[in-house]
Amino acid sequence: MSADGPIRIVVVDDHPLMREGLRALVASLPDVEVVGEAGDGEAARREAQLTQPDIVIMDLHMPGTNGVDATRAILRTTPATRVLVLTMFEDDDSVFGAMRAGASGYLVKGAQQDEIVRAIRSVAAGHAVFGPSVARRIIDFFAGAARAAPAAEPFPELTAREREVLDLIAAGHTNLAIARHLVISVKTVSNHISAIFAKLQVADRAEAIIRARQAGLGNKP
Questions:
Q1: Where's the HTH luxR-type domain (predicted)?
Q2: Phi-psi region for residue 218, left (φ > 0), alpha (ψ -120 to 50) or beta?
């Protein structure tokens, strides 16, 4: 979008009434204009290539080429264009399919007119915009992924046995107590500790304990 020009939009929806409604909404805005429209994904791709719009308002489920594939094709051929999805679907496949294709915004049909207008202007300014229900779905998805992800082991440079010895050191155990706990010799414990100091580049037991406790070790009795 030029600094002194309107936001140029292509409206894509297979329902003529929906396209007409969006065109009327855009026509009421002084800084936005419709430069094209299409009723399916392939026509949307051609229209975007012809008109080079700032934004394509994209339905997803249409006959022929769907909105996700059309979004991907448009952004490949006209990378300066941004896509704002406006659809009646908010299932995971639709939402994340559109995001992976490169959509900059996602609203569900039924959104208020002022919400659509804000989304148009925000997407034109380079922001990502999601309706409340879609935003909640995205947050829940990533929160679930974070809960499911296993916590990274601290000090990956250590072997499992060395990490176990460090955990016991951080808990305040002596070498003899560690040897008895792990059923190994005191000399073997000393060898593990020497390896730990070298790998962690610490000077002494106190520094090793500080590093270990900062990483969450030493909490076991």
A1: 151-216
A2: left
CB 38 within 8 A of CB 74: no
Measured over all CA atoms, what is the biggest interatomic distance in the chain, rounded to whole angstroms? Answer: 83
Burial class of residue 67 in the structure, from the number of CB atoms within 10 Å of its CB (0-12 exposed, 13-18 middle, 19+ buried): buried
- Asked whether residue 124 falls in the same domain as residue 169, the answer is no
Helices (H), 4-112: 16-27, 41-51, 67-77, 92-101
What burial letters (b/e) apply to 124-138, b meaning 16+ CB within 10 Å? beeeebbbeebeebb
Contact 10, 51 (CB under 8 A): yes
71 inside domain: yes
What CATH number is given to the structural domain containing 180? 1.10.10.10
pLDDT digits (tens), the chain, 221 positions: 545 689 999 999 999 999 999 999 988 999 999 999 999 999 999 999 999 999 999 999 998 899 999 999 999 999 999 999 999 988 888 888 999 999 999 999 988 999 999 999 999 999 989 888 787 777 777 676 556 556 677 888 999 899 999 999 999 999 999 999 999 999 999 999 999 999 999 989 999 999 999 888 887 65
The answer to whether residues 59 and 129 belong to one domain is yes
Determine the structural domain holding residue 166 and report its residue range. 160-214
Q: Are residues 105 and 127 in the same domain?
A: yes
Domain assignment of residue 18, yes or no: yes
3-class DSSP state of 90: coil
